[in-house]
Amino acid sequence: MGLDEVARKPHERLMAWLAADMEAVNVMIRDRMASEHAPRIPQVTAHLVEAGGKRLRPLLTLAAARLCGYDGPFHIHLAATVEFIHTATLLHDDVVDESRQRRGRPTANLLWDNKSSVLVGDYLFARSFQLMTETGSMRVMEILSNASATIAEGEVLQLTAAQDLATTEAIYLQVVRGKTAALFSAATEVGGVIAGADAAQVRALYTYGDALGIAFQIADDLLDYGGSSATIGKNVGDDFRERKLTLPVIKAVAHATPEERAFWERTIAKGHQAEGDLEQALAIMARHGAMEAARADALAWADTARHALEALPDHPIRGMLSELAAYVVSRIS
Amino acid sequence: MGLDEVARKPHERLMAWLAADMEAVNVMIRDRMASEHAPRIPQVTAHLVEAGGKRLRPLLTLAAARLCGYDGPFHIHLAATVEFIHTATLLHDDVVDESRQRRGRPTANLLWDNKSSVLVGDYLFARSFQLMTETGSMRVMEILSNASATIAEGEVLQLTAAQDLATTEAIYLQVVRGKTAALFSAATEVGGVIAGADAAQVRALYTYGDALGIAFQIADDLLDYGGSSATIGKNVGDDFRERKLTLPVIKAVAHATPEERAFWERTIAKGHQAEGDLEQALAIMARHGAMEAARADALAWADTARHALEALPDHPIRGMLSELAAYVVSRIS
User: Fold this and answer.
1) In which band, very low, low, confident or very high, does the pLDDT at B94 lie, cut at 50, 70 and 90?
2) Residues of A with Cβ-Cβ distance to B155 under 8 angstroms
3) Longest Cα pair distance anywhere in chain A, in angstroms?
4) A75 CB contacts (<8 Å, ≥6 apart)?
5) Segments making up each domain of chain B, as ranges
């Protein structure tokens, strides 16, 4: 391994290792997102797909399948499937969150309209479903339909829990599974299933994806209170302004003094925010070590992910997946 | 058959014939629309499900399966599946159309918000997908995933074609297949597939559902220009005010004089509508026999549906399906 290799981030090395597979996935995505009849569909989708993103979910499927020795054609379908599901949820999320920016570009709901985002999301969801059907694996269909239900359920839960100070860490975890971890774990699990891995290996792949997704999301929550727009593609304090009960806030609320409680009531529950409130929120969280506690949780989840890999074959991909788990929390270490 | 039986509408007689099956479908719908974690989900769904609706799509699945001699358990899953897909599309449609009323009640997007409608629709779509997976039939998955893609594609097409006077009858047909006929034909087709019907019978069931759906939708378009709010659950002229290019308008535009063309440009393409425009639209359509021509199309599609049934077993259900095809156009005869 040359110096260049060492310097690369783990997902970039995974991407390089799986470059031929990923190219096949990209071809399939372009092919299947087309619509003979409705040109609006590829316009909206291309806007998102071309904006790039890390393609982390399809990469996880490809990695899991190859790690388990798969050499058939269907890991490509499954990787494209998870990217379609992901893109569909992004389109719907942007409508629900009234977002204006995604991956550093204006969102589809801003460029076109909410209607297009809703319907093109539905189209991609249906397409993902067609793609996975082609694999002929019932177990794959079960995993991905369960993940889809968990995603939607988590999103609804987030909607209703969003401004509710009674939100517990258990509810937070459920929301995070819906938002991120359910698709991560489905992505790795179906890779193992299509490769015919044994039950213990499939279970390990599920655990890896689940824990990686949770670590990733907690890190994202932390960065929202401390990252820069360039790093995370959004502005510091967005979650606070959108009154989201992310993990650091939940931890701070749990230890709040009466005055602090009144502050969270006003800014999050009622949404009456004023100049300087973000700074005050940061100060309160610092007082209770809320950021440090959330950071410790993220590191523990990353460890869980790395330990799960021990059940899987000794393979260069396994090493890169392990480094990936370390990497998602390195942003906050 | 007593006088009461004769007086009933065909779908009511089908419903009575299949009452035990339909009760099982209702139980399954209530069971599967629940969410342990997100109470907003059953609230939104119950609002729609309890409002009733005709349950026409699940009825078609049950009828097709029983007509082909099925006596297993999975027609119940499939009937619940098509109702979930239908309900999911209604929730998303109401967001896209900014509707305020559905089945004579305020829409979910009005009672809660667009966010809930989008996400609960996604949840029901995922649930439908879990349900059909339980049947273990790959062919069923293909049919329903293809139908889902056609539905979404048709909706996007409707969105972009909505105010475009260049919309042809061919595009209209594609939109109608997405809006209505794709789920009708999938509903009947999967009933035959699960029953193990032969290819010719499955094809006939597809054709019946497709033609019935098209006849139904054209009739709906006609009623929008001539029905009463009590009959159709919406107000006369809604489509005109929403600038929808439905079949009578497309036919009138095709024969428009220059002045008429200017009228359609102003009212539909540009959306500048004034007092008396609806009456003028009706007068122009009458001048070109547009309503009569659309009515003739609907009758021809109903005939296609009835003829398709000839390939199916001689059975009381077949008679009721035939009468149902006649009934959907009787509202406009």
Assistant:
1) confident
2) 119, 122
3) 61
4) A21, A61, A62, A65, A66, A191, A194, A195
5) 8-330
Which chain A residue has the Cα nearest residue B146? A130
The runs of H, that is alpha helices, within B71-198 are 74-96, 108-111, 114-133, 138-161, 169-176, 182-194
Q: The pTM is what?
A: 0.89
Residue B231 predicted with pLDDT over 60:
no
Cβ A285 vs Cβ A291: under 8 Å: yes
Q: Domain B8-330: give its CATH architecture.
A: Orthogonal Bundle (1.10)
CATH topology of domain A3-330: Farnesyl Diphosphate Synthase (1.10.600)
Check pLDDT > 80 for residue A52.
no
Phi, psi of A107 (to 5 degrees): -75, 160
Name the closest residue on chain B to residue A126, using Cα atoms: B149
**What's the burial of A304, exposed, middle or buried (CB within 10 Å: 0-12/13-18/19+)?**
middle
DSSP structural state of residue B9: -
Chain A residue with CA closest to B94: the answer is: A115
Residue A267 structure tokens: 């800014």
Amino acid at A156: V
The A-side interface with B (CB below 8 A) comprises 35, 37-41, 89, 92, 95-96, 114-116, 118-120, 122-123, 125-127, 129-130, 133, 136, 138, 141-142, 145-146, 148-149, 151-153, 155-157, 159-160, 171, 174
Chain A neighbors of B153, CB-CB under 8 A: 35, 37-38, 41, 123
**Chain A nearest C-alpha distance from B111 (Å):** 14
> What's the mean pLDDT in A249-273?
96
Say if residues A175 and A162 touch (Cβ distance below 8 Å): no
Residue B61 is predicted with a pLDDT of: 98
Name the minimum distance, in Å, from the CA of A167 to any CA of chain B. 12
Residue A168's H or E segment, with its range, is none
More confident of the two residues A316 and B95: A316
